[in-house]
Each structure stands twice: as structure tokens, then as C-alpha cells.
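Slide 14.
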Amino acid sequence: MTADLVYLVAGSSLLLAIVLPALLNRWAVSAPMVLVAVGMVIGLTPLPDGMPLDPQTNRAAIEHVTELVVLVALMGVGLALDRPLELRNPTSWRKWGSTWRLLLIGMPLTIAAVALLGWAAGLAPAAAILLGAALAPTDPVLASDVQVAGPQTGDEHEVDESDELRFTLTSEAGLNDGLAFPFVYVAILLATEGVVSSWALEWVGFYLVAKVVIGVVAGIAVGRALSYLAFRANTASLRVAERGESLLALAALITSYGVAEVVGGYGFLSVFVCAMTFRSAERSHDYHAAMHEVAERLERLLTLFVLLVLGIAVTRGLLEALDWRGVAIGLALILVVRPAAGALALAAWAKPPRQGCMDRPDRWATAFFGVRGVGSLYYLAYAAGEAPELGQDWLWSTVSFTVIASVFIHGALATPVMARLDARHEVESPDITPRAGS
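Slide 15: predicted structure.
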């Protein structure tokens, strides 16, 4: 019966992935909102229990499915970004200034604030830190309405860089999934090894620095190797870009992730860096758009499948352990913590007309639209596998509630807020046509 139900849910997700984007294009309703709601309705029906919905007994399945969704999304995000980032070019780093502020200031503040709220709610320190680390990253999967649409290629590859809001949200989501891992390991090490002094140096040297560097280097190496193969190989049969074989996107994400994990780096970071590196080769080539389309379609299908299953699980007991503390923490993160941390990070040096900065409305919108999603579920499942005491029901209920609340709150506001900001941009800069989110 389980296999039959999985096929049913997968088929429904595929159908909805095809028809929903066009149907919802003009409404303040997102496809994730519909999928979660449909799943909740299905969960209320007398449909037999047969799907792996219980996180305690199906933790490994949840970990691997959510891991795959995030990986596909990271490849799509990396291919979508047109703004180059060159290691030896300080100017290109300055153009990513808003992203660095959100990563280096906003994310640690968010982790600390949520961890303090969890500790005040009665969680052990390790569980409180995990809650903060799992909920801090923004999601590249569910934030398509506020992200860049895709790579500009061909004659239009000289892309306008005025849409700082969408670029910042997209690049932040691509990087913070990998950069949250060191803080997840703080929770794991605290739960498994106890006293901080016994592992603090190891954490700084290996988990915070070495694994990040290894992940970046692995991503660059794989990205350069595959871009050379696709565009410049001596043998014509190996130049897959000439044939338009866009499935190389999947080969790239799997290879970069595998290489990074084997050599001890962060695989999520490697996949994003690999996509960015590949995108930097032959930037105007239409092959980039073809690869991005493959990643985007697969991402949409997998995301809607996960959200449909999440909706079913919600009305079949996933939120049984949820109490007012979990509700308060989830809503505080969405409505107070992330907006405040994001606004503080962006306001630190951000005053127009400095390059890479935004005006006040865009800064507030960027700070607010920190969508939570599938990555949070992955981190919780991963940590629970490393330290079972971190997989308590209350954490699953609280994280799941926060993801669902983010889906509905951000999903309802994304279309009207972004439309208003785009209209304002057109009035202020009539020669610039804003790029809509996908």
C-alpha cells in the first residue's frame, strides 16, 4: 500500500507542478500554499496510513528526500545568478555586499536569537542551538516568487544589476544552506561530547574553516572541469553544450556534492559554487538557460511532492507536540527576528547610492522575505541521525509549524509586495524593466 500511495502523491504533485504556476500567476497565492493545504485536506480523509510520515520512524527517508530537494534547488540558484563573483576581483566581491552582510551579520544574529528563545522555552542548550541553526537559513526552494527568474544569455547577457533585492535574496539562499552547517555541528558536538572546551578548537579549525574551504574548492574544481568539458573539449562528442544536453546539470550537482562529501567538505556549498563556476564559463551561451530549466523543473516537482506529504503529515499527528512556545518561536522568527536581524545587517553600511546597496523599502523587503522551508527539515533530520536526543517530537513540530507558517505568510505577501516594489522601480528608473521572479 505504501508504494501505491507514493505513486499517487507523486503523480498529483507532478500534475499540480504543471498547472499551478499559470493558474496562480495573478493571485496572491503561491503553489506551495496550495500544496500544503491540499495535503492537509488529504490527511483529514480516511485514506489508509501507508506513507512514511512519522519523523521518528522515517528519519532517514526524510533526510535523504529533503537533501535531494535542496541540492537541486542550489544548482538551479547557482545557474540563475548572472552577477559574477571572481576570487581575485575585489570589485565583484563588493557587488555582493548585501549578501555578505546577511550571511555574516544577519544569520548569526538569527541563530543566536532563536537559540535564546528555545533556551528560555526550556530546551537543553544543544537542542536550542539546533533549533536556531535549522531555522536560520533561508530557503532556495520556496522563495521563487522573490528571487531572480533565471540566467540571461544570448544577446541579453549584459544584465542590469539594479534589482538588488531579488539578487540578494537569491544569493543568500544559495550560500546560507551550506554555511549553517557549522552551527548544526555545534549542537551535535554539544549533545555528543559535552563540555565545549573539549571540542571548541576542533570546531573552529575543522567544521567552521576547513570544511567550508574544502567545499568551495571542490565546487570550483568540478565546475571548471565540467565547463571545460561542455564548452572547450578537444573532442566534439564531449562538448555537450553544442548538443544542448542539459542533463549535465544533474551530473554536476551529484558530482560536486559527492566529491565534497568524500574529501570532507560541505556538499551544499560545493553544489552552489560548482553552479556559479560553471555559469562563469561562456556566460552568454544559451546552454546555461537550458541547464537551469532542467534544474528548475525537477526542483518544482520535488518541492511540491515534499510539501504535499508535509501537509498530509500535519493533519495526521506531526504537530501533536506543538504548544504555545513553539507557535510563539515560529511566529517570532518570521515576524520579528529575521526582519530585525536582516534590517540591522543591511543598514550597517547600506546607504544609496553606493554600489550593491538598497534603499529603505527594498532593505525592509529583503529583511522580511527570509522564507523558511525544506532545508530546515533536512538539518533537523540530519542532526537527529547524529545525536538521537536532538530528534525530539517538540522540535519536529516546531520546525514544521514554522515552515508552514512561512509558506502561508510569505506566500500571501510576496506577489503584492514585489509588484508594488517593481512598480516603484519603474517610476524611478523608467528605462529599467524589473525581472520578475519565477
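Speaker note: Residues 432-438 have pLDDT under 50 and may be disordered.
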